[in-house]
Amino acid sequence: MRSVIQAYRFALDPTIGQEQQLRSHCGAQRFAFNWGLARVKANLDQRDAERSYGIADPDLTPSVSWSAYNLRKDWNQAKDGAAPWWAENSKEAYSSGLANLATALSNWADSRSGRRKGAAVRFPRFRGKRGMSSCRFTTGAFGLADADRRHVKLPRIGLVRTHESTRKLTRRIEAGTARIRSATVSFKGGRWFVSFSVEVERTAPNPAGPPSVVGVDLGVASLAVLSTGEVVPNPRHLEQAQKELHRLGRQAARRTGPDRRARQQPSNRWRQTQARIARLHTYVANARADGLHKLSARLVRSHTTIVVEDLNVAGMVRNRRLARHIAGVGMAELRRQLTYKADWHVTDIVVADRWYPSSKTCSACGVVKTKLRLSERIFTCDGCGQRLDRDLNAARNLAALAEASSPSCGATENEPDGNPRKTCTTRATGTAPGRPTPPGEGQRRRRKASTQDTHLHVS
Question: Is residue 391 flagged as an active site residue?
Answer without folding.
Answer: yes
